[in-house]
Amino acid sequence: MKKDLWNLLLKKGLLLCTLFIPILSLSAQDVTIPILTANHAIVLQTDNINRLHTVYFGKSLTNENEYKSVAKSFNFKDSDAGIYDGAYTPAGTWNLSEPAIQITHADGNRSLELKYFSHEQKNIDENTTLTSVILKDPNYPFHVTLFYKVWKKENVIEQWTEIEHTEKSAILLQKYASANLYSTTKEFYLTTFQGGYAKEMQPAETKLVQGMRSVESKLGTRAMLLQSPNFILSFGKPASENEGSVMVGQLAWSGNFKLEFEIDSYKNLRLIAGINPYNSEYSLAPGQTFKTPSLIYALSNNGTGEASRNLHSWARKYRVLEGEGKRVTLLNNWEATYFDFDENKITALFKDAKNLGVDLFLLDDGWFGNKYPRNSDNAGLGDWQENVKKLPHGIGYLVKEATKAGIKFGIWIEPEMVNPKSELYEKHLDWVIRQPERPEIYYRNQLVLDLTNPEVQDHVFGIVDNLFTKNPELAFIKWDCNAVIYNAFSQYLKDKGIPQSQLYVDYVHGLYKVLDRIRMKYPKVPMMLCSGGGGRGDYELLKYFTEFWPSDDTEPIERIFMQWNYSYFFPSIVTDNHVTNWGKQPLKFRTDVASMGKLGFDIVAGKLSLNDKLFAKQAVCNYNAFKEIVWHGDLYRLVNPNEAEIAALMFVEQAKSKAIVFNYLVNTRQKITATERPVILNGLDPQKKYIIREINLYPGTHSTIDSTLVYSGDFLMKVGINPDVTLERTSVVLEVVEK
Length: 739
Ligand code: DGJ
Prior knowledge:
Blueprint: H1 3-11, E1 18-21, E2 32-36, E3 40-46, E4 52-59, E5 101-104, E6 115-123, E7 128-136, E8 142-151, E9 156-165, E10 171-183, E11 188-194, E12 202-207, E13 211-216, E14 227-235, E15 245-252, E16 257-263, E17 269-275, E18 282-284, E19 290-291, E20 294-300, H2 303-319, E21 330-332, H3 334-337, H4 343-356, E22 360-363, H5 394-405, E23 408-413, E24 417-418, H6 423-427, E25 447-448, H7 454-470, E26 476-479, H8 491-496, H9 503-521, E27 527-529, E28 547-548, H10 556-566, E29 576-579, H11 587-594, E30 598-601, H12 610-632, E31 634-639, E32 646-652, E33 658-665, E34 689-695, E35 710-712, H13 713-718, E36 731-738
Parallel strand pairs: 21-22, 21-30, 22-23, 23-26, 26-27, 27-28, 29-30
Antiparallel strand pairs: 1-6, 2-3, 3-4, 5-10, 6-7, 7-8, 8-9, 9-19, 9-20, 10-17, 10-18, 11-12, 11-14, 13-16, 14-15, 15-20, 16-17, 24-25, 31-32, 32-33, 33-36, 34-35, 34-36
Bound molecules: (2R,3S,4R,5S)-2-(hydroxymethyl)piperidine-3,4,5-triol (DGJ).
């Protein structure tokens, strides 16, 4: 289709629904494809032999017609390594740099060429467009479709690819990235997040220099334990909260991932992200489609703050299950009892939950197993029958008792795993991922079940289905996953003649299949994703889970940093924060920190002092009054705890009439007498007038904040308010209300 005709149709609104550009041959086409968000553009363009390049990745231009001229301004085309800016770089022909895709054809040939064939741009709704581009190998019946889904207002892009062929027999996919981006900005700074048990999401920012920096997981399950698929890229200078061009992104895949950030010999950035090719060759039959996971990112020209807010809005509106809905506050018994409980202990805790004012009681690990009772983490996992000694009247009785006490009831499961000391292991050794000829290797005394096997999928689905069938009032599931995959070997794949290298990928597909079935039958029941803390948590799993558990580390000062880091990527409605006994901070401090997300408790609430009890009850009440703002409002990270002695975070209601500001002392080394500077607020209406009141006061204490003063939004966003954080007032929660 000629561009003039295209523009005419566009102007007349005739292409509102579908734009389809069928190009019936692979001869050279002069095609420019701008993929546009409100403020950002990715421009793809063909060259004179029909290869497709990313010629622009930056701020959107006022005049759309000018995108086609962008490439002429650059001269990066004579690299000995091939063309760095390929839109989806193939291996084995002209390209000698890191490929996005590498395959072996059915005839054993390992070369791949990809040329532009056609593209299509659809408006899904007013805010959402989907661009798909077909690239074909001129010598083989093999093609790849690149997808770019754009949410304009939020400046969020989701990219994935679909790979198909009609060769004579199966081909082998060796590398099959989700996205291949290219940017010609002058300098790049990358923040990645590493961790370990109880120290998830530790950030490290580096300037990218020539060569490759890759971030990856090979752990199989609990894939985020050591490295996270979340990253911040900053263009031109290090990332900052309110200025600069940034990309806040994630590979939404719940298994092994690999993100490759390569600075090429022109000092431009190549970004290739996808499933980790490590031990993951995938056999693709003719006619079958391989869909890669998605790379999801928000772009902003105003720093990480705006990028996060946009990603949060997008996640709530378009991605997370019940993202715009409600959540339940809860009392969990894990740290209150560990495995040591019985029916009486648990029902007594129901009363504590009711007195606290939370919505639900969550029964954690340890309720099951009879031949091998689950009294520690070395036995019983896999045997999902109530332990008759601990719970002689079963879960049904607990659900009834909870209802009588006026609260809901939820339960912990870890359905993908098994202890060798279990009836399940004795009965179904073939369901277990293990090398039959080698000694077993355990992680937390357990092994992973083989979710590539449909029988195992039925088993895992059955655990959840059985719980709900027997206890229709069950109101919450905590789904844990504590082990990584050692000794990767699947008996099922062997029996079916499927290559073992598909285990890591088919495991994750199996998991999604089970979750699809669960959500088909139980569409809305809240489910918390947990993985020995934050070993899992991505936007693919959050289609099925309403929330996730970021870490077992609930020491509140550490937790401020951790929640801060998670907040770059996730809205607070999906991060579960519990008040526990970790650390030395008072109950008020712990509760205030946990209130910056979905609040829960994991303490023996009945044993609190009278004042603590009074405080906690009032704090839950206050939380109920402001939780809508925390869950659905806009987050402003005001004072970074890495850069100051305090941390301050603020949630603002969409209408800007109400906000909550959390302030904490994080550095007690210097004995500060009072916060020297005011905290400058953000996100308010400069024209509106506000009063500020301190809430969550501990019984017997008085606020030093004058709640009679009236401030303009303008004042609060230029001068700010001093929260008066001191050694006596280490945690200060302020409610900002329009007057
Ligand atoms: C690990 C989780 O992170 C904890 O909260 C708890 O549920 C234990 N597993 C139970 O085994």
